[in-house]
Amino acid sequence: TKHTIKDYLNGRVEVGSQVTLEGWVRTRRDSKAGFSFLQIHDGSCFDPIQAVAPATLVNYQSEILHLTTHCAVRVVGTLIESQGKGQRFEVQAERVEVVGLVENPDSYPVSAKRHSFEHLRTVAHLRPRTNTFGAVARVRDCLSSAVHRFFHEHGFLWVHTPIITTSDAEGAGAMFRVSTLDLANPPRDDQGDVDFSADFFGKAASLTVSGQLNVEAYCLALSRVYTFGPTFRAENSNTTRHLAEFWMIEPEIAFANLSDDADLAEEFLKFLFQAVLNERPDDMAFFAQHVDKDCITRLEAFVAASFERMEYTDAIKALEKAQAKGEKFEFPVRWGIDLQSEHERYLTESLVGRPVVLMNYPKDIKAFYMRMNDDGRTVAAMDVLAPGIGEIIGGSQREERLDVLDSRLDELGLSKEHYAWYRDLRRYGTVPHAGFGLGFERTIIYATGMANIRDVIPYPRTPGNAEF
Ligand code: ATP
Ligand code: MG
Ligand code: MG
Ligand code: MG
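A: This is the predicted complex of the input protein with adenosine-5'-triphosphate.
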């Protein structure tokens, strides 16, 4: 197999070996002493490797002196110990082949100078070659493999839940419809309006907002399962924390209550962030230097902290107290509200100073499937709030009692027929079970300090935006 630049820089290849580097030029510097220094990267790690090209190479004048940022090259030479500081190894080039030039380097959209993230979003196909987006891609990959490693080490099975579905897991309306209608000749109802109720080959269907209901069925047979895939929300919001298409990690555990769920969430998040610290120190050093100077210390503190568990009702009391003392909230606090990010941040940053698991929310602001508490007005819901970002996890113990679930469905005007298969799970061997959803992009924002969720997913989908 081929070696990567990471292998060379980490000393996995013997000094003195003949090597072939295939990659892209990051920068070129020419020395009067008759050399050019090419920094070459191939995506395998943050740092480039230096190739030293002597002026005696046949194409030195004609080609090497014209290399610009992101030209593709193949360098054949000898791996040597570096004389300069900063790097242990470099390549003494014996041949530099130009594989692909950059046309018009002056107008190249991702030239070596710094570009704004707004500009880079307009060239989402070119931004992976910048330092920042290469680092984001590696951290994203590191986190996604850590997700699978954590669950497999803990005896979970990965279940692939469907994207096209008729279940609305939130009981809310923020779903994208799937349509196979012939729009030139659509079916019409009695009033002559287009009938969208049967848009998926004769049935109504949408893109999933959550795999939870599907994964519950597997949990109630296989005990510990998770799903991890794209989910879709047709919320017309333009925030730095919401996408129309985002990835979610949803574990579900049987014979478990809300406290077990909170324990799992805490252990899982710490595992993910420890993995980034261990496996991507080069990329994290870059984020700390150029994006958010606190990102490494924040992750270290997160991993070391023990999460505060707080009742929703107590959180409201604390927020009301702060409000009475003059803390200004845009959304006034009272029992019954869904917390806004300003409240979440006050709790984690000003009040507690570490991650908070907020538990037992009013039933009226939560979904139908959450387990009713004995007080009759709260449900066994939890959100994990992290300092600096707010909600990253939403979870709950699920209602496992058929009669209670049915009265909730009735109360909310939801159809028992529609949820018949979900109700079956409560009729045949039901057990207490719980789970949560972790927004994958929120996790990446937290790890890297990137400010906008559009910059931690390769191709962001936001209202009106599905280019590339
Ligand atoms: P929020 O209050 O931030 O809108 P939510 O309560 O609507 O989130 P849940 O239904 O609880 O979200 O989803 C579970 C997790 O998925 C959230 O904690 C969050 O990390 C993530 N998430 C939810 N909506 C989005 C979105 N539109 N884009 C990216 N991530 C999201
Ligand atoms: Mg939301
Ligand atoms: Mg929320
Ligand atoms: Mg939530």
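Residues 322 and 328 are 9 Å apart (CA to CA). The pocket of adenosine-5'-triphosphate (ligand 1) is lined by residues 233, 241-243, 246, 248, 391-394, 437, 439, 441-442 (CB under 6 Å).
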